[in-house]
Amino acid sequence: MLEVENSLSNNRELPSIPGKRYFTIGEVSDLCFVKPHVLRYWEQEFPQLKPVKRKGNRRYYQRQDVLTIRQIRNLLYEQGFTIGGAKLRLSGESAKDDSSQSQQIIRQVKTELEEVLHILRR
Asked: What is the pLDDT confidence band of residue 111, given thresholds at 50, 70 and 90?
């Protein structure tokens, strides 16, 4: 649980995720501070990343994909894991418990709602 909180604190500098259903690779790149070619590479390396592909083989990521990318980014760039180590960590976490990701989503939604409330009170 502490690891999830640490990854959240490192991701706080990242912009909040808009309330959309699908995101283009460019939008995900901006939301996660990762270049599009890196995202395409990570799709090959991490089986957890499976964006929907539509017309013209265009990728559309869902909110869960964005959270997974942020988690991968944290493991690789902040915690210094190798690709292999990050794969092992992610596969172990997904097998362990989905509630940690649910808690992460709840925290993100709560933060976004607090931002909206702050704007409305102005």
From this structure: confident
71 lies in which domain range?
2-121
pLDDT tens track for 21-52: 999 999 999 999 999 999 999 999 999 999 99
Overall domain count for the chain = 1
Say whether 80 sits in a helix, a strand or coil: coil
CA distances 8 to 26, 45, 57, 87, Å, are 22, 23, 32, 19
pTM of the model: 0.67
List phi, psi (to 5°) of 34.
Answer: -135, 135
Dihedral angle over CA of 27, 50, 71, 62, nearest 10:
50
